[in-house]
Task: structure prediction
Amino acid sequence: MEIYGLIASFTGFVGNRIGEFGGHLVALLTLTNILILFGSTILGIVFGAMPGLTATLGVALLTTLTYGIDHNTAFIALLAIYVGAVYGGSYSSILLNIPGTAAAAATAVDGYPLALKGEGGRALGMTTTASLIGTVFGLLCLVLVAPVIIDLALNFTTFEKFWLAMFGIIISGTLTSKDLVYKGWIAGLIGLWLSTIGQEQLQTFPRYTQDFPDLQGGIAVVPVLIGALMLHNVTPGPMIEFKHPGFIMSFTAILLLAAIAMWMSGMILARQVVKVLRIPPALFMPIIGVLCVLGSYSLGLQIVNLYLMVIVGIAAYFLTEMEYPIAPLVIGVILGPMADENLRRGLMVAGGDVTEFFTRP
Result:
């Protein structure tokens, strides 16, 4: 009888969660929201597909236009352009082997070889459908286990956050290495090292700047979407569901709509985008070069970013020639600040005792 009771309790819980999710989803289905949804998604795909015009830049530009409007409408615009841009990065990643966004770095590993075989359209169709399936599955899990995740997040300390970041870097290197696994790990650790350039986050002490003031800000990926949420009085974190009841459900519903809009727009655009391969490289690559320069400069409006672009580009070329995967390097730059900050904070909390990292959780 206890088993039947547990099953009935679980079924009721799942039904309530899905019902709540459906209520938020229906509330968002207005004509204005749908038009903004598709418009922002297509704009995001354009930003993601063009090297240099990143998801970060797209969200930053759109954030100023969303201030003062209805929160749900603003979040639809911001999340749709973000989802579209992250997906759009796969276009240049597959067709040109130039990831339009950091998230598309891994797509180049399998997508570009297919494009070289004349199967670029098939690769784009696969990544579009895979993006939808992955998003829907992830959102379904979020809807069902969000309360558990919140409880777990509240128990997450500095030590667990450090290992979580390191796990992401190591697993990326393991999955993307063509031959020797350690090459992926080395690439990931290089990215981790690059993320430590600039002022460290706890005591603002400069590291590896070689006395260049322009390097004080580091080479980190700017989390503009988090800033956009805070502009609308929503502070991300484990307490979000307590401070804003129902926000996670509404947020999840918007992401689902954005994923569907991304899939519909992507399947239509994929057939046309493949025609880019017909443009002679002598004409097309200079345009890509200009976009890369503009995109690098737009992140911080600093000339030093252009020098870094050239240096990192040359280094990435030689790493590729030696069959070191680039995707773990990018992941290392993204997760590096999280690993670095929590390593230092953990050591401060433990009084320099490294064993604390191995005795938790």
Summary: The chain has one domain: 2-358.
